[in-house]
Design a protein that fits this description.
By secondary structure, the protein is α/β, with parallel strands linked by helices. It has 9 helices and 7 strands, in the order βαβαβαβαβαβααβαα. A 7-stranded mixed beta sheet has the order 3-2-1-4-6-5-7, sandwiched between helices.
C-alpha cells in the first residue's frame, strides 16, 4: 500500500473533493495526487488542506491532459501501481482494491473499470452512448472493451511507463486503449459501481437537452479522432 498512488483529475469540484479524498483514505490509500485542471473555485485549497499532493494547471486543458499530468507525477514518485478515478464522487473508493488486486497477483498490467459489466448502475441513455464509444474505439484502434470511456482504471509501473497520451479531452480514454494494444499489455475488465448523486446530476442541469449535448460531444470526439488518424 505504500507505493500505490491514486490520481484524481478535478475541475471545479470544490463541493465534493474533500469527501472524495476522505473516502479514498478510509479504504487505506493515503498517497493521493489531485490534478486541479484550471478550476476557478476552491478545488485547489480544499484538496491541499486535505493533505494531498496537488498539481494545478493554470488553465483548463481537459480531463485527458489532467490525467496524464497525474500519471507523470506518479512516475516521478516511482509508483508501483497507479489508479485513476474521477473527482466528482461518482466512483466508489471501495472498488480500488478490486482494481489493483489482479495487478498485484501478476494477472495483468492494466485493469479497466467497467460500468457496463454492472448494468444496474448505469442509466439506459448513458449506456447507449458508451456502447457507441466502444464501437468507435474498435473501428479506429481495433480493441473492444465493454466500457471504453471509463476513467476508473489501474496501471502497473510497466504500463504507466509506456502510456503517454497526447489527446487532452475525453478521447484520451480510447487513446490509452490503443497504446495498451500496441504495447501488448495484458488487461482485464472489472465491474465497478457508479454513484449518480444529486450533485453529479445537478452539474449538468444547466445544459439544455443534455442527452442531445452528449451525442454532439460524441461526434466532436469522433471528429478529433478522425483528424488525429489522418495526421498521424
Amino acid at each position: 500500500m505504500k507505493n500505490i498512488w491514486i490520481i484524481i483529475p478535478a475541475f471545479n469540484e470544490a463541493k465534493v473533493i474533500r469527501e472524495v479524498i476522505n473516502e479514498v483514505k478510509k479504504e487505506g490509500f493515503k498517497n493521493i495526487i489531485i490534478v486541479d485542471d484550471g478550476s476557478i473555485d476552491d478545488t485547489y485549497s480544499k484538496a491541499k488542506s486535505a493533505g494531498c499532493i496537488v498539481v494545478k494547471h493554470i488553465i483548463n486543458r481537459g480531463k485527458g491532459a489532467a490525467t496524464q499530468t497525474g500519471l507523470d507525477a506518479a512516475k516521478i514518485l516511482n509508483a508501483e501501481i497507479v489508479v485513476t478515478m474521477d473527482g466528482d464522487g461518482q466512483h466508489s473508493a471501495s472498488d480500488i482494491k478490486k482494481l489493483i488486486e489482479p495487478i498485484i497477483n501478476g494477472k495483468c498490467d492494466v485493469t479497466l473499470g467497467s460500468r457496463l459489466l454492472n448494468k444496474k448502475v448505469m442509466p439506459v441513455s448513458r449506456r447507449f452512448i458508451n456502447i457507441i464509444g466502444n464501437i468507435i474505439t474498435y473501428l479506429f484502434y481495433g480493441i473492444y472493451v465493454t466500457d471504453s470511456q471509463s476513467g476508473f482504471r489501474a496501471y502497473s509501473k510497466k504500463a504507466n511507463e509506456i502510456i503517454n497520451t497526447t489527446m487532452d479531452r475525453y478521447e484520451f480514454e480510447s487513446e490509452i486503449l490503443q497504446q495498451i494494444k500496441t504495447a501488448k499489455l495484458k488487461y482485464i475488465e472489472v465491474p465497478i459501481n457508479v454513484k449518480y448523486t444529486e450533485y453529479s446530476k445537478k452539474k449538468w442541469d444547466h445544459i439544455k437537452n443534455f442527452p442531445r449535448q452528449r451525442l454532439i460531444n460524441g461526434f466532436k470526439m469522433l471528429y478529433r479522432m478522425v483528424i488525429r488518424s489522418i495526421l498521424s
